[in-house]
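Input chain follows. Return structure tokens only.
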Amino acid sequence: MKRLVVWLAVGLAVVASGVVGLTMAHAPTPAHAQQPPPEPEGITYAIHGGGWGHGTGMSQFGAYGMGLEGRTWTQILGWYFTNIDTGQLGVDVPDPGVLWVGLSQHRSSAVFDVQATAPDGSGYVVISRPTPDGGTEQVTILNKNSVVISFSDGGCALSIGTQPWWGPGSCALDVTWDGWTAIDPTTKIVIDGDRTYTYGDLRIRPNKPIGTSPTGFHITHVVDLERYLWGLAEVPYSWAPSTLEAQAVAGRSYAVNKMTLRGHPDSSTIQQSLCWCHVYNTTRDQVYIGTNFRVGVETWKQAVASTESMVMTHESEVFNNDPLAVATFYSSSTFGHTEDSGVAFGSGSTPEYLKGVPDPWSIAPTVNNRNARWTKTLSEDAIANAVGLESLSDVRIDSYRRAGTEYQTAKQVSFIGLINGEPATRSFDSRELRSKLGLLSMQIVGIEKQGVVGGGAADAIAGHDPVTGLWHLLRPDGSVNSFYYGDPGDRPMACDWDGSGTDTVGLYRQHTGFLYLRQTNDFGVADISIFYGIPEDQPMCGDWNGDGIETIGIYRPSERRFYLRNTNTQGFADMDLVFNADGTVPLAGDWDGDGKDTVGLFNPTTEMLYLTNSLQTPTIDISFHYEGANPGDRIVAGDWDGDGVDSIGVFRPSNATFYLRDTYTQPGANHTIKFGLDRYNPVSGAWD
């Protein structure tokens, strides 16, 4: 039901942007590729969002986009980290020395394969550990041998192949080779048949502080900071050189920050219990794969070398009266804006350099970010279980971050249902929902209830280009149907002209007073042509009598009168009515879900919306202050959540974005969709 397409202003400035779908492909990167789960049946909720990760600091896809534009690494980092400075280790910032990387924790066994890298196969490792009498015992392991470290009887034992060598004893083992002294070491260690380490050496350490009883052991890689950076696997090595340099500096600065603040593992009982390390080799800190290098590693090594010893600092961050390398957080991407660290991590406070900033490069088509927009669909039961409800009846977005802007995302979301048979509401910050609902990010832009009994297909959006006559219909799957229909300057609308359940396009040629309607959404001539109205009239359409067929109408501003037809034929109005409301922009929709469309008016100056539920005795049944509407916004009506009740939204030319609300009292948009060009006239309809 609906469906008038109207606008608040007709500014026609051209912008250089393309058509962007509501749901862009969001398959994960190849390293995480998997088959999508089957869609749940029954009533479901589609959660729309964008970006991947915590969203604080540098957006890696954003950095990639900036690199493609020719920005330098200092410009990239300077954008994502406000008022940041650069410093050199050992000159501007104290050098913390050797890095201890936690490879695996709380192990009961591990296998180490010794493999020579030299052509003559002469590689070997030496494993040593302290003895109870204060001495040291050691064993040399030659090429092509496997070592098994196992925990039993309160200590660590060692076997070479299947041959026991050391019985249970100290779990403080050092594994050394020429990884520190050689430019090209002769030996590499493969742990558990997986990751490889060539530089530095390895440490096996008990998972409890010295003097206490361990329950297992940690595995740690001790390595030079620059060689550590060689093993980071955070971005594709094929990306722009300046992007790689920005990543190298961010990775180095982050590691130095943690080394400084966490303290050396040999003297920190907390770190000894956790990992006996400065940083983990996972997304807890940074993804580190040792020397399991990937294609293109030389470009990455060059980025590390060209930024050697460089870290990021901020005047507010010091440690022991010395400048401190700052924690340069980063994540894969955002939906178009990064988050304050206090928001993303729940700390409540945000240092200046970690405040959120716009991130348009993260969603630019040139970077091909498949997670720029994503949708996750969950059943009622799945959500109820996740949020602690017995059953779920509705989901509501209560508040927004950056409300009323193109960067609006959900702040607090409430889940309404039952607990022990009694009505209950559970409310969460979107940050919490990332883990509870398994979302790619906390950046939720809208939530749709689907499969509602008594409802129908939710309306989608479209844009009509008044300059070219080109239509762009956004389908629910994110694809776009584009075709030419009409002349430049025609005024668009879309309705179900034949009761088939699918809306198709129509045009009003204002200077002639003719309506031209199509029965299919493609290029062609009008299937129905109707002379109806005079040049000042504004077109509209709706199911005025509830027969399931939507028909034409006009609003005549000079008379403040609506003229509505019950058939798509030429003739006099079947209904004409004056709606006494202080508005200038007409619209139509089924505001109460009774199966019949009625009319309304919007005043763009006062931001007031006035709707009536009756065409016989039109009174103001709904009045609503549309807070957040901007001058130049173009209003559009539709059933955005498929519940059988139409509501309203706006298209904002300044950022080519639709903001759609599911209720008249909603404080912000339920659905935010960037789509098209600023000159488009907005249209809505059920296209499939």
